[in-house]
From TrEMBL:
InterPro entries: ARM-type_fold, ARMD3-like, ARMH3_C
GO cellular component term, pick one: cytosol
Top-level taxon of the source organism: Eukaryota
Presence of keyword rRNA-binding: no
Keywords: Membrane, Transmembrane, Transmembrane helix
Protein's name in the database: ARMD3 protein
Domain Armadillo-like helical span(s) in chain numbering: 435-671
Principal location: membrane
Compartments where found: Membrane
SUPFAM superfamilies assigned to the protein according to its UniProt record, in alphabetical order: ARM repeat
Pfam families: ARMH3_C
Keyword Transmembrane: yes
Length: 689
């Protein structure tokens, strides 16, 4: 018997004498693509169509093959198909519902694809017709809402979310997607919340639901009242917010786990041996090889939750088992195709393991710790555009957290101590820190560690000025809270001071190159004012009097850097160039630092001369400092503990517009044919009752 092969909607026998035969569904599609009403000759046409397995590839290809004029000729049939799809969503037989959902996906994508050309026809008119658009879209959204909220098939819910993601992301710029007006009017917000509040639904669909919500929140967010923004900002149901937090934590944990696995592979492999042998010349290459795709979609969801909903701040500190320490499943985790921005959801194994009850022997974690670990990975390499965007978004999220009173309360809580293992960039002049020796400390210490790590590791030719500014602002906001609430944090402040002084040194060494691209005086002023904050208010928040002495020791020890900075800003502030005003601000800000240097240096030299000591020890310098405080005169500087609060609309609108465009493109790419495959669905609905 001759074998039957299937290709592109054609059935053909291997015998060359026979003509290719088309699948019945393909023949029916061809009837839709004529100017005649297909139900004229066959009254049961639409009923039969939705019993046929959808051929997505053929249907989308057929739409793409037509030009705008040809498509307009069959508009009535396209409208009819769209409307019958919506009607089929109310059918009892699940196979009809599945086929209708997939047909809608193909129609929406195919018609939108045509709109990229210059044909100029209106999408809504092409799909449903202006006269019926409002009612049809209302029925569609109500049907999807019912399917998502029903206790029926999880596969159907998954397909509904895929259709909604398809609907939202068909245009690169989601704010230009006019169909979303109907998604705004006929809200599915409550259905999304229901998915997030139920453990079973969350495990199956949480990722898609969270990404969908993040995208819907960004539809015309600066131009009109977006109901999803309004509703998200007032959610106060604990189960829902915790559910959303868990989905985000699991996705970020999966990223951290993948990175750690790749890192361990490299450390144990031949490449690691070669790197150790040759030295650090291959470090950059090694980093590139162990990079894992960033996940900006889930990061955007975290940002919107933190930025819009004050109740979500409590979720950041909710304890759960350390996901990386959970026992791994015995069966291998199925691999998914890697897509840019990591839009593939985490495996269900990771999700289910994370919702186990707490074990006394398992290290507890929380969303904030998971996020800090994620940030420490993506912020290592900012040369890649996606990582740069991810790094910037991480710092924006941390900025929102650093401004929040409640967040600061748990960040600085002495009773909430955690061991946070941040990833550190390989550098020639330092050894890799041993993970086991990490102390348990308040969470703010991990935030400060992350900021110090960034400051130390990004002094390079392609200087990320914007990220440095955000980094210093976060440190400043945390200090403002400590000063205001008189929190004496036991932290290794010397590491921060040393990093800041080295940053000033870098700015001076690369003055010419950097000034061609950046106003380095804005950053220099912020760094100097951090020191002024410590000098003026340090006695209220530094842990011990000796910490304050050590601050003075560091300023005196590194006085040459401050002297050089003063010389540079004085030179530029006395010239009539473009940098006169910003440089003069730094000159004025240095007044107390220079007073400290000019007051203590002669006394240290005198002490050395009297005691015939060529080089003083740290203890001897500190002794001189302590005994000469009373004769030091400092000027009171205003506004050191004031800052401008974060504002998205005025300063970040362009960044978020580009970020959402990038996420939309990648979510759409990830909704490939394989993710809409019917095989599993048809197995589930193999019989029609």
């Amino acid at each position: 018997m001759a074998q039957t092969e299937k290709k592109g909607g054609l059935l053909r026998k291997s015998s060359a004498s026979k003509k290719p035969l088309k699948e019945k569904v393909v023949l029916m599609y061809d009837e839709v693509f004529t100017t005649e009403d297909p139900s004229k000759c066959n009254p049961r046409f639409w009923e039969e169509l939705f019993l046929m397995k959808v051929n997505l590839e053929y249907l989308e290809g057929k739409l793409e093959a037509l030009d705008g004029e040809e498509l307009m000729k069959i508009k009535d049939n396209i409208n009819c198909l769209f409307q019958h799809c919506i009607q089929a969503l109310g059918e009892e037989h699940p196979i009809r519902v599945v086929n209708a959902l997939q047909t809608l996906c193909a129609l929406i994508r195919g018609v939108h694809q045509k709109n990229k050309s210059t044909s100029g026809f209106d999408i809504i008119n092409m799909l449903v017709g202006f006269d019926k658009a409002e009612l049809c879209m209302k029925n569609l959204m109500e049907s999807l809402d019912s399917l998502l909220c029903a206790e029926g098939s999880e596969s159907l819910k998954s397909l509904c979310l895929k259709l909604l993601l398809c609907l939202v992301t068909v245009t690169d710029n989601i704010s230009q997607n006019t169909i979303l007006e109907y998604v705004m009017i006929n809200s599915i917000f409550e259905a999304i919340l229901q998915i997030l509040s139920s453990p079973l639904s969350r495990r199956e669909h949480g990722y898609d639901a969270v990404v969908l919500l993040a995208l819907l929140v960004n539809y015309r967010k600066y131009e009109s009242v977006n109901p999803y923004i309004v509703k998200l900002s007032i959610v106060d149901d604990e189960a829902t917010l915790n559910g959303m937090g868990l989905v985000i934590a699991q996705a970020l944990s999966e990223y951290n786990r993948q990175y750690k696995d790749k890192e361990e592979e490299h450390q144990s492999g031949f490449f690691s041996a070669l790197t150790n042998m040759v030295g650090s010349m291959f470090i950059a290459d090694a980093d590139e090889k162990i990079s894992v795709q960033t996940n900006e979609a889930i990061l955007l969801a975290l940002y919107e939750a933190v930025h819009l909903n004050r109740n979500f701040i409590t979720v950041l500190a909710q304890s759960h088992p350390e996901m990386g320490l959970m026992t791994t499943p015995t069966s291998p985790i199925p691999t998914t195709p890697v897509t840019p921005l990591g839009t593939t959801p985490p495996s269900s194994d990771v999700i289910s393991s994370a919702e186990l009850p707490l074990d006394a022997d398992v290290q507890t974690s929380n969303l904030l710790i998971t996020f800090l670990k994620y940030s420490s990975i993506v912020m290592q390499d900012t040369k890649d555009e996606h990582r740069l965007h991810s790094g910037k978004l991480c710092l924006i999220i941390l900025t929102c957290i650093a401004e929040d009173q409640y967040a600061n309360a748990f960040l600085h809580d002495d009773n909430m101590n955690f061991r946070v293992n941040l990833h550190r960039m390989p550098m020639r002049h330092r050894k890799k820190a041993a993970d086991k020796n990490l102390p348990c400390r308040p969470l703010v210490c991990a935030v400060l560690d992350l900021m110090v790590e960034f400051i130390v590791t990004h002094m390079m030719k392609e200087f990320p000025m914007d990220l440095y500014v955000r980094c210093i602002q976060i440190v400043h906001k945390l200090l403002c809270y400590q000063k205001k609430c008189r929190v004496r944090l036991h932290y290794t402040w010397r590491e921060l001071w040393s990093a800041l002084i080295n940053l000033l040194k870098f700015l001076m060494s690369n003055e010419t190159v950097l000034l061609a691209k950046h106003n380095i005086f804005t950053l220099a002023l912020m760094v100097v004012n951090l020191f002024n904050m410590f000098i003026t208010y340090g006695d209220t928040f530094l842990p011990t009097p000796s910490s304050y002495d050590e601050l003075y020791y560091e300023i005196i020890r590194m006085h040459q850097n401050f002297d050089n900075l003063y010389s540079m800003v004085l030179r530029l502030s006395t010239n009539a160039g473009q940098w006169k005003e910003p440089a003069s601000k730094v000159t004025h800000a240095l007044v107390n630092i220079r007073a400290i240097i000019n007051h203590f240096n002669p006394k240290i030299e005198s002490y050395a001369a009297v005691n015939h000591i060529s080089q003083l020890s740290e203890d001897q310098v500190l002794e001189v400092v302590r005994s000469n405080y009373d004769t030091l005169t400092l000027k009171l500087q205003d506004g050191l503990d004031q800052y401008e609060r974060y504002s998205e609309q005025h300063k970040e609108a362009a960044f978020f517009k580009e970020l959402v465009r990038s996420i939309s493109i990648n979510v759409r790419r990830n909704l490939a044919f394989n993710t809409l495959s019917q095989e599993l669905l048809l197995k589930e609905f193999s019989t029609i009752s």
